[in-house]
Amino acid sequence: MSLATTVPNTSWAHHAHAFVKEVSGPEVALAADAIIFAEDNAANASNGVYDLGYIAEDGFSVETEDGDTLDLRDINGELLDSLSKAASLTLNITLLKPSEATRGKFWDVDDTTTGHIRVKELLTTKHYAVGFGNIGEGAIGSEAVIAPYVSVTGAHPVYAADTGWTVELTLRVLKGGASSASSRFLVDFVKLTRALLGLSTSGSGQ
Q1: Which of 24, 59, 110, 195 could make an S-S bridge to 94, C-beta 3.0–4.6 Å?
Q2: What is the mean pLDDT of residues 65-69?
C-alpha cells in the first residue's frame, strides 16, 4: 500500500499523555489496539497498560545517533566500500507530578511502610512498550507514537518550585513488537480513531 500524500496532524495538545505496558521480550507481538489512548483507565486495564499521566510542555524530545561506519580498503588504502551501522534512537520524556505507582515502574522502591516510598535504586531492568499522544474526543485523527520495546536508561527525579516533582525519563528504543525478527520495528505512527481513544464507535463510522 502506498503512503498517503496528506500531512498528518502530529501536533499535540498542551499536555500529551504517556502510556506503558511491561513486555517480557522483543518477540512479544504488539496488537494494533494494545495501547488505548483513553481518558478512562479501565479501557487499558485488561491489557496491562498503565497511564503515566501528563508529559510536561516541551517535555518530549527524540535523539538519534548515527551508527559507526566500517570502511573496506585495499592494500594501498584505496576505499572499496563503506557500510554504516544502524542509528540508535532515544526518547526523552518529562513526566509531571508522577504518582507513587509511576515511580515504582522505573525505580526499585520499598512501599511496604504506610506513608513511605523508600527508593533503593534509580533504575529498573524491565522493558516496556510505550505510547505517546493526545486523549479525548478532540484527538480523533491526530497522530500518536508507539514504541513496542524500550529499555529505561534513566529515570531522574527533578524538583522545581512551580511544578513540584517531575521525573525525567530516558528510553532507549529497541526493535520489537513481533515474534519474527524480520517483522520487528522501532516505532509505529498511529492515526487515532474513536476505538483507539476508547470512545464509543456506534454510528461514528470510525
Answers
A1: 59
A2: 73
- 163 contact partners, CB below 8 Å, separation of at least 6: 56, 96, 97
Please compute Rg for the chain using Cα positions: 20
Contact 106, 86 (CB under 8 A): no
CA-based nearest residue to 9, from 142, 196, 191: 142
Residue 76 backbone zone (phi > 0: left; psi -120 to 50: alpha; other: beta):
alpha
CATH class of 17-66+79-197: mainly beta
Domain ranges for the chain: 17-66+79-197
Measured CA distances, 89 to 63, 83, 152 (Å):
6, 19, 13
Q: Is the pTM of this model over 0.90?
A: no
pLDDT in tens, 186-199: 999 889 888 888 88
Q: List 146's β-bridge partners, or say none.
A: 131, 188
Q: Is the pLDDT of residue 7 over 60?
A: no
pLDDT at res. 10: 61
